[in-house]
Design brief:
There is one protein chain. This protein has 3 helices and 3 strands, in the order H-E-E-H-E-H. The chain is of the alpha+beta class. The chain has one domain: Factor Xa Inhibitor, CATH 4.10.410.
Length: 62
């Protein structure tokens, strides 16, 4: 099964094994974005995946 490369670029594996993701839609064109909206996108979010799906991405994230 192929892995979505764009999705894996947003993932990061923490020391404890959690997968943290960057929120999408923050790369460009943020000039008219409000400050609070801009800062909300800078925060990461925890991803809860099943073990089967997690194994699929874990080798790529490391």
């Amino acid at each position: 099964m192929k892995t979505t490369k764009a999705f894996t670029k947003r993932l990061k594996l923490t020391r404890r094994g959690k997968i943290v993701a960057r929120k999408p839609g923050q790369n460009h064109f943020n000039a008219k974005e409000s400050r609070s909206g801009h800062m909300n996108r800078r925060r990461t979010q925890n991803i809860s995946l099943t073990k089967k799906v997690m194994q699929r991405y874990i080798d790529i994230v490391k």
